[in-house]
């Protein structure tokens, strides 16, 4: 494949730019104005939180309120608050952040917990990742992207 040595984040950016160009071209041909691009503040507001509600560690990230998570993720949050017991032996282990999708921290700062996916036989792709500073993150695509969980 021609793009095998290109970082995924760059490929995503290029794909998004291509999609935007295609949409602008299609809308322009129809004689309609394109809707303004969402800002970080509007994206946060659409997730059910005001910009002032977002803690410093979550600034610039997609966010989701805890009550907007799937029930299985809310159950895991409750278990984390209680200190367990967890369904999988890997729960509570160090998350290495090798994908660099979360802010850089020292090794051991982040820990991961499995969020059960109905219909999956294995652990599936959903996780809650916690930080030592009280941060909570949710991924449903096995660490490709994260949302800061606002509690």
TrEMBL record:
It is an enzyme of class 4 (lyase). The keyword Glycoprotein does not apply. The keyword Nuclease applies. Its EC number is 4.6.1.24. Residues 1-21 form the signal peptide. It comes from the Bacteria. One of its GO terms (molecular function) is ribonuclease T1 activity. Keywords: Hydrolase, Lyase, Nuclease, Signal. This is Ribonuclease T1. It comes from Streptomyces avidinii.
């Amino acid at each position: 494949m021609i793009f095998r040595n290109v970082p995924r984040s760059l490929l995503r950016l290029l794909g998004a730019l291509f999609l935007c160009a295609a949409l602008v071209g299609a809308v322009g041909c129809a004689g309609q104005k394109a809707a303004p691009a969402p800002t970080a503040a509007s994206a946060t507001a659409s997730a059910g939180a005001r910009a002032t509600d977002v803690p410093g560690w979550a600034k610039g990230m997609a966010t989701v309120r805890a009550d907007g998570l799937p029930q299985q993720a809310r159950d895991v949050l409750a278990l984390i608050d209680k200190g367990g017991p967890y369904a999988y032996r890997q729960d509570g282990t160090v998350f290495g952040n090798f994908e660099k999708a979360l802010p850089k921290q020292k090794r051991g700062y982040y820990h991961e917990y499995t969020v059960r996916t109905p219909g999956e036989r294995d652990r599936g792709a959903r996780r809650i990742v916690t930080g030592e500073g009280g941060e909570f993150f949710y991924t449903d695509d096995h660490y490709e992207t994260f949302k800061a969980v606002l509690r």
